[in-house]
Here is the input.
Amino acid sequence: NAGVTQTPKFQVLKTGQSMTLQCAQDMNHNSMYWYRQDPGMGLRLIYYSASEGTTDKGEVPNGYNVSRLNKREFSLRLESAAPSQTSVYFCASNLPGQGAPGANVLTFGAGSRLTVL
Amino acid sequence: AQKVTQAQTEISVVEKEDVTLDCVYETRDTTYYLFWYKQPPSGELVFLIRRNSFDEQNEISGRYSWNFQKSTSSFNFTITASQVVDSAVYFCALSEEWYGNNRLAFGKGNQVVVIP
Here is the structure.
């Protein structure tokens, strides 16, 4: 069981370039999330998708777009990368609705390390 | 707004010593959930424990124990007899029932270094 799979694991971009981070889960989870992790900042929510066909902004959405392609896949796009977007990006998913929604544990991908020069 | 504070940034201990990680949270909600995650040097995030706001029972699981006190808004985590494999970043996180879909707010993390 693969869980949450992110690609690529590493990427170097030049300022202004665009790229898409891909995320797929095989656990039949309804909700998916993108977080970024920066040194000393913990993890901050960029966007999330409560269910297929819906997306919402998190804490730090500026400079990003997302697409919930289907139930399995949730991609994060940087249209014009900036050095401030250098970070480690984590995709996560869970299955809210079983019991109290806030209680469900997130399953994280292994992370994608992005460097913008 | 929800907020999680982990005041200690890096904690170094000698192997076999105990280490306690402090977590203080802020929420206006009466129903909420608290989590601890571990991030070893390999980078993945590993779920350790979840507690809801109605369950203040403290727990011991092997070398790990948790102390949840609503009166002080704290959810502290202790590793007893630390081992080198415990070296990792530990994150405390909060989810408010109101948000529904488990939009976790994370603290900044505690870097634990266990010295052999």
